[in-house]
Design goal:
By secondary structure, the chain is mainly α. It folds into three domains: about 1-35 and about 105-200, Four Helix Bundle (Hemerythrin (Met), subunit A) (Up-down Bundle), CATH 1.20.120; about 35-105, Seminal Fluid Protein  PDC-109 (Domain B) (Ribbon), CATH 2.10.10; about 200-344, Four Helix Bundle (Hemerythrin (Met), subunit A) (Up-down Bundle), CATH 1.20.120. About 60% of the residues lie in helices and about 5% in strands. The chain has a three-stranded antiparallel β-sheet, with no helix packed on it. Helix 5 packs antiparallel against helix 6 (about 250-275), helix 5 (about 205-240) runs antiparallel to helix 8 and helix 7 packs antiparallel against helix 8 (about 310-335).
Length: about 350
Amino acid sequence: MKKWLIILSRIEIALLFLVIIAGSVVRMTDSGMGCPDWPKCFGHLIPPTERAQLDWQPNTEFHKNQIIIVNEALYTAVDAFTTSEVYNAENWAKYTKHDYAIFNPIHTWIEYINRLLGALAGLPMLALFFISLSFVRKDWRYFALAAAGLFMLGFEAWLGKLVVDGNLIPGSITIHMLGALILVAIMLVFNGLASKEEIKPVLHTKRFLSLMLITLAFTLLQITLGTQVRELVDGLHQSGVERSEWMGQMDIFFYIHRSFSILILALNIYLWWTNRKDNMGYWQWNWVITLLGLEVLLGIILAYFDLPKFAQPLHLLLAAVIFAFQLHAIIHLALKGQLSPLKT
């Protein structure tokens, strides 16, 4: 049974990263309002593929809460009914949560796939929750982590609804991203506990541990700053500012984000070099340095080439993966760490 805890937690981690990249693609393509309602999309379980499906039609069955567009506004069916030959306004209620009434099939399906991945991520988490019930007496931590993960998934779904209902409320998108990272952290701890027997011992010193914790905290702060920059970019785009002019209108968050990357790079290089020099056993830092090099390259491309769309989701994904490897190294230490005789 324990092997299923390992398998399912790894599947969940992979799905969470798919959700993160899907969410970033949604932002990159401006598809956040591709589905104007939640959890359905234009009132459908499977969203429409063409604009004509959102027009009022005579002698047509409509189900309750199905959405149509009339005079550039959204209207929902107050009940299930079949239309007559003439439009009857009494059968429809104006959608008042927001006034975004644009249908773009590409945006709709990008947002819909993002939601499907989010729903799919709930399946292994739910399975982990029920399986962990059988481990309560042996190790209550499995159940506690699975319950926390399930709660966070529910919170993320609820926050996603608020984001849509509020037409992409500033700030809530950043919280949405941080929630996803918390979910990744919960699953990494869960997987670490479940696969503890497979983990090889590593060395550490108090200084090395302190620097790892500081670096992890700085990485999380850097991701938060990055999402703030992204929200500024979204605002410039919605205001009609030309892409070539975006960099000239960056605020203090961008400059802090850019300068802070130098400190983060230095800390990670030091940890990688110390780990390598003193044979401490953390394979994760090899990945961190490799990914950090790619991350810096993407940052340069974003800053000097007018924020190209392809680089935006990759930049966020790499940051999340770097965070995961850093945290995994700390979990590795917590589970199988041994005090090093070296004073580093």
